[in-house]
Design a protein that fits this description.
Helix content is about 40%, strand content about 15%. The protein is of the alpha+beta class and about 230 residues long. A 4-stranded antiparallel β-sheet has the order 4-5-7-6, with helices on one face. A hairpin with a 5-residue loop joins strand 6 and strand 7. Helix 4 runs parallel beside helix 6 and helix 5 crosses helix 6. The longest helix is centred in the C-terminal third of the chain and has 25 residues.
Length: about 230
């Protein structure tokens, strides 16, 4: 399971839920595998999100931020599991890429040196504070959530309570035209997802947020003008 849902809408589960699933696995001799491909390497405010739920996964899958975009991924876990396969029983197309390994080591060194997990918390606090304040002008913002820099903003129609997929799609398009690339997520497509680079500057983040805020205000105003 993902400690924080990614494409599903950047949903942060209760700590008790994750620990409950973990307990069921332990009681029934089931391996607990944490998918940290999106949540790993500081994005949630700690090196791995699993630690925030008080669990120790048997296996973790890692990729994306591990090497700042170069092709490498990893599976790590308890020695008893990792040592079980014999030679040649596990392989992959990009297994052991020398360039990817060098990049991954450099990323890990930089994360520790510059405390990027700590910066992730600062980024996330700024994003969430911005959208909580924006709710006054954009009542379609129903939920502002996240761990560290991994944030999701959920939009619904303030009258009907139904997911505002169209508003999010319009926002994504208008932001792109204004020079900011944002992505949507969620089963209903009504969540704006934020997973900014942890090396983003405060000025860059604020500029992006301001553009998104202006876009959303204009879209909501247009809806009111059209009586939608």
């Amino acid at each position: 399971m993902e400690p924080v849902q990614g494409e599903g809408g950047f949903i942060v589960p209760p700590k008790s839920f994750v620990q409950g699933v973990y307990k069921i696995c332990k009681q029934n001799d089931i391996l607990f595998i944490a998918d940290e491909i999106q949540t790993g390497f500081g994005r949630t405010g700690t090196i791995f999100a699993s630690s925030q739920f008080g669990i120790e996964p048997d296996l973790m899958t890692l990729s994306k931020s591990i090497a700042a975009g170069l092709p490498i991924s990893a599976v790590v876990g308890r020695a008893g599991i990792m040592d079980a396969p014999g030679p040649g029983e596990i392989g992959g197309t990009y297994g052991g890429s020398p360039l990817g390994c060098v990049a991954a080591l450099a990323v890990i060194e930089m994360m520790e040196r510059d405390d990027l997990p700590g910066k992730s918390k600062i980024i996330g606090d700024k994003i969430r504070s911005f959208f909580i304040a924006l709710q006054e002008d954009v009542p379609h913002i129903a939920d502002v959530r996240g761990l560290g820099a991994m944030c999701g903003i959920e939009f619904v129609d303030p009258v009907t309570g139904k997911p505002s997929k169209e508003l999010v799609a319009s926002c994504v398009k208008a932001c792109y035209e204004a020079g900011v690339i944002v992505l949507s997520a969620g089963v209903q497509g009504n969540v704006l997802r934020f997973l900014t680079p942890l090396v983003i500057t405060g000025e860059q983040l604020q500029e992006g947020l301001d553009i998104i805020g202006d876009v959303l205000r204009k879209l909501v105003l247009a809806k009111l003008t059209m009586g939608v």
